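Private note to self, pasted from the team thread so I don't lose it. Backbone tokens:
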């Protein structure tokens, strides 16, 4: 939090009861192990844990108050509400309503974290800009992002994720973005959504209940475009490769892991962007970001200049030099089938010997086996010279280029030295924890970005 609030003020705002002395709250935490002095500890309940069991631990670490759903026999100041999660959202909504910042909201099956980072980087050329930290894009993370808003912020970029229908509508009502970006719709979280149509409908919730002055940025190449257009009541800006899109990608210079050049046609004129971003798929992420920043009043010249200093997001095709001979590409943050495919396409375009260390893709439901088979076939079809597969879900093939590992730790145990190759790609869903492999390789090589 950038602003402070007293426990009595917060209780009044939430129409809640309070017990204990009045204290000044200067931060918010929901993990008792990471609570900072002067924090409010939010006792969230989940299927696996009850935050009320950790209020004492949070108090011991310096929390000055606790948001609870039942009174606890502790002397710490307590604010009692019916639902801690709902109260957190109510508080965040109040902070957002009092902010004068222009808010950009981002959702999509892939690319939302990268677009969030690009837009935030570009808008910093216009003024103070805050953005979602890490993967704080759910019903807990989004309120915490909004609570970070301060009076000095002129812009904020908020990432919104979803696992169930209605999630984006809930978050959007809280964020109320003036600029709303939908990056793409792909098979991701199929286990909870069930179909691509449901994903498209859920992501499209970002365009519901728009005000007349709001701006909707949507992929012009999507088969769902007409449906999203009907839902958006503000100004619509499309991006993509197709003729007629407002921000059109007219040329892509994919230099593999050496960077990306993109030429765009925009209402403000044509432009050439040169960046250290990796992979042709980032051409659309750049196009969506340019659309949003033009909508925020940024000039095309300023955008081109600011793009030149862009750096890849940590865990998103970020490059680290392990040795004179070997470069690590860290893409361990997340992995849908399309993101996996794009990473392997980029690897295939890169000269040298290549090792792909791949972990399983999560939440693909009944289609999981098919997607894993397709990705392995692509990896062996020219993308990599050697493939290490971690975890379950991968098809068994008899190929000397393939090694199987039951766990992430087994992969780490096999890496007693930097492999003898030019490029190492590490790619998996976040749940596979292949970021541990990345950290191990960096420790072996003393890597720098």
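Design output:
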């Amino acid at each position: 939090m950038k602003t402070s609030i007293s426990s009595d003020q917060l209780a009044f705002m939430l129409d809640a009861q309070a017990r204990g002395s009045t204290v000044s709250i200067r931060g918010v935490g929901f993990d008792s192990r990471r609570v900072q002095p002067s924090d409010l500890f939010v006792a969230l309940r989940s299927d696996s844990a009850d935050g009320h069991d950790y209020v004492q631990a949070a108090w011991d670490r310096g929390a000055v108050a606790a948001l609870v759903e039942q009174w606890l026999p502790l002397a710490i100041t307590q604010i009692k509400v019916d639902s801690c999660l709902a109260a957190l959202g109510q508080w965040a909504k109040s902070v957002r309503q009092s902010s004068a910042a222009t808010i950009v909201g981002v959702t999509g099956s892939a690319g939302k974290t990268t677009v969030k980072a690009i837009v935030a980087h570009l808008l910093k050329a216009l003024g103070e800009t805050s953005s979602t930290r890490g993967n704080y894009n759910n019903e807990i993370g989004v309120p915490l992002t909004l609570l970070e808003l301060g009076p000095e912020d002129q812009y904020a970029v908020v990432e919104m994720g979803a696992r169930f229908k209605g999630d984006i509508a809930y978050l959007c009502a809280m964020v109320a973005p003036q600029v709303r970006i939908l990056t793409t719709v792909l098979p991701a979280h199929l286990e909870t959504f069930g179909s691509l149509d449901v994903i498209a409908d859920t992501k499209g919730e970002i365009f519901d209940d728009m005000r007349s002055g709001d701006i909707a940025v949507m992929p012009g190449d999507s088969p769902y475009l007409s449906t999203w257009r009907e839902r958006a009541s503000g100004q619509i800006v499309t991006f993509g490769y197709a003729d007629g899109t407002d921000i059109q990608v007219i040329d892509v210079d994919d230099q593999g892991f050496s960077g990306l050049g993109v030429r765009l046609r925009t209402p403000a004129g044509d432009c050439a962007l040169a960046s250290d971003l990796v992979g042709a798929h980032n051409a659309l992420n750049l196009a969506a970001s340019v659309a949003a920043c033009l909508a925020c009043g940024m000039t095309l010249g300023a955008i081109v200049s600011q793009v030149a200093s862009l750096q890849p997001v940590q865990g998103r095709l970020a490059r680290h030099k392990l040795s004179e001979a070997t470069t690590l590409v860290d893409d361990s943050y997340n992995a849908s089938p399309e993101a996996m495919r794009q990473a392997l396409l980029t690897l295939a375009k890169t000269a040298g010997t290549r090792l792909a260390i791949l972990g399983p893709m999560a939440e693909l439901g009944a289609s999981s086996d098919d997607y894993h088979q397709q990705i392995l076939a692509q990896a062996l079809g020219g993308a990599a010279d050697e493939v290490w597969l971690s975890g379950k879900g991968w098809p068994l093939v008899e190929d000397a280029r393939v090694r199987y590992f039951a766990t992430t730790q087994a992969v780490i145990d096999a890496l007693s030295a930097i492999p003898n190759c030019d490029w190492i790609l590490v790619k998996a869903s976040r749940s596979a924890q292949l970021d541990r492999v990345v950290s191990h390789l960096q420790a072996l090589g003393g890597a720098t970005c």
